[in-house]
Specification:
This protein has helices spanning 17-24, 45-48, 60-70, 87-94, 171-191, 198-215, 222-249, 259-265, and strands spanning 4-10, 31-35, 51-54, 75-80, 83-85, 103-113, 116-118, 127-133, 155-168. By secondary structure, it is α/β, with parallel strands linked by helices. It starts with a strand and ends in an 11-residue tail after the last helix.
Length: 276
Amino acid sequence: MVPVSVVIIAQNKNEIIPGCIDMIRLITDDIVIVDNQLDNGVDNPSSTGCRVYHQQWDNYASNKNKGISLAKYNWILSIDSDEIPDIRLVRALHGLKLTDPEMVYDIKFKSYFGKKLIRFGKWGGDHHVRLFNRDVITWSESPVHETLTLIAGTQIQPLNGYIHHYSVRDAAECRSKAIKYAVLGAQKCYLLGKKATLLKRYGSPAFNFIKNYLLYLGFLDGTEGWTIAVASVNQTWIKYHLLNQMEVNDKFKPIYADKSLMMKLQPVPTNSYDNG
């Protein structure tokens, strides 16, 4: 076994967790699940070999740091409940010496829309730092979205293999997640003092579409590529228009914004593409 604790944040996607745990058992003897709504038997530690902690959902960073504090080892592999490491990544982890706590490890992702692998656009070529030493690195306790706090001199090493990310089940979930992250993004920008300029409100969504759907060849992913592109445009549009409303009202919007308002803010019809 590798001296790494795997911390899983479980909020949804419960059907993915058993497959995730099966692969993680090939890596470590310490699996920590921080959960707020598991209902499929995974909360039985004797049947899974996991330690499950039920935690009120505050935000991603808070729950991830809670899992880190409960881990057995200092080296942490951070996994979400809709992600599964593959066998190449398992082998790569077994080959690591893990002697430098200031080293972090970047992992490539393969993202799925339902059962379809998305190869292009903003989801293609995705990668994130997910393996780090908790003595040096932790998640920033942002009230809206989590980021790793990397110290000066941190070295980033890529790993072989992939984390397979089962991002959305269908178009409805894709749209729903886009709205969720638009609200989170607006809140983060507001707290950081960023401004919703005319260029950001109208230029950024257009640039987003050109970059991801055309330059990054998102159109090659067919209907799913179009749905992702439209959701991304709407996400960017809503984020900056919601930020503009916050600035005008000088008020921080609650985490769950009014859904009818979100629909009114969307510039692109979500059902504007109906063939493959």
